[in-house]
Request: fold
Amino acid sequence: MTKKKQTYKDSIEELESIIKKIENGDVDIDELSSLIKRSAQLIKACKAKLRDTEAELDQFLNDQGD
Reply:
């Protein structure tokens, strides 16, 4: 079974969901650690996507200037 790559939007939505759970107090201390680790993974993935997109845009703009 092929796992679908999570999109930037999916990552942001999952992060928002995690934040709401934590803010509402719906998380016990045992689950908190795993949610924090997952949040760090999601943030890392979002930053990478933003960097990649910026590089693609820079490349496109540079190509247009030639």
Observations:
- The radius of gyration is 17 Å.
- Residues 29-65 form the longest helix (37 residues).
- Residues 8-65 form one domain.
